[in-house]
Input
Amino acid sequence: MTEEDFSCGNTLFHKRDARVKIIAAVTLSLVLALNSSISAAFAGLLVGATMLAFSKPTVSILIKRMGLVNIFTLFLWFTLPLTYQGDSFTGVQITTLITLKTNAIFCCFLALIATSSAVSLGHGLGQLGLPAKFTFLLLFSYRQLFIIREEYARLQRAAQLRGFIPKNTLHTYKTYSHLFGMTLVKSWNRADRIHQAMILRGFKGKLIPLARTTLCTADYIFLALLLLISLLLTLFSYYSKFL
Amino acid sequence: MHISEGILSAPVLLSGAVLTTVGTTIGLKKLDYDRIMSVSLLSATFFVASLIHVPVGPGSVHLLLGGLIGLILGWGAFPAIVVALLLQLLFFQFGGITVLGANGTIIAGPAVLCGLILHPWLKKSKKQRMIAGFLAGFCPVLLSAILMSGALYFSDHGFFKIAGLVLLSHVPVMLIEGLITMFVVNFLARVQPEILSMEVET
Output
């Protein structure tokens, strides 16, 4: 498993402030999710794909993620035209709309959000007014995630070395439960130790980001441009009903 | 378990967002800084659980264990699960920004509810603890699947059969979750019982 595969880079999208990208991504996603016209959804997909192309993602990972996201739409393609209450033509129309919308929002997300690191997004959310406790939770679980996964992987390796082969048996489920239970116990005790260590260092419930970020002109222009695109998409979606 | 972007209707998305905001706010309010570290570690553990694949029949399912987090954290499970969902969205693009609220309600709501209801059972006999453990795995998945089907159905009545399929496909997950949660609860009760008996004073 790899994480934050798209966050490294030096493109226009990587350089923008996390706050600006969060606002833009939320607005664009909302506009696209609420739209019910196929042509507007297609326009949205074009916008998303263009942004994605500018953010220069790693193509191999991109294809894999795109496949994962489309598993559900594929499932819809196999089932919805046949099961849709109404007729199968409406079923096909709805499925097309959903496929376009899902992929359009996915592209926007990758270009806007996945190009930031989890840390800058966490702090960005805090600066945008999310409760401090929430951003703390986000940043800290992100910090501990890799350690806990490593912890679990170690237990799993030990089980494999003892000849554990997962099968459809109660023993398998019990073994998995104990592996996970042990992971829980370890992370629980780890939490205590971290808490004590942080108290010793004078922790008062506030995380102070080292990188002080200020918004520059390019950020404002970027935001204005994307909000304009969102507005245009909304208008397009609204008027394409009458075309 | 995640619903992707572009499927749900505006009223469903909005109610999901409102419920998740309320749940998260209550959860955060009940959470003081002495416990925040445990909650963030459990949030990370919940994320790791979703990477564990357990064999079922010819295929495999990944663990959810929301009910277990609910048992351990009570209301605190709400923000913990929402944070884990946010991280999954960030890393794997599961779910989406606009459906985060709906997914949060679908997954965290039943987890918290079942955790709060079943927690008092844990302190009783071993048999009752095992039953509570099983139910804490089984019921949240059942309720989540019902909520998910409901969200699909209320978005578009044409989704009726799909909603039924979703519900049906979760039956094996419910059973596995029930068994695993039961064993984990039993394990924790023997190894480190204080993990199970915190919170839920409400």
Remarks:
- Residues 13 and 102 of chain B are 6 Å apart (CA to CA).
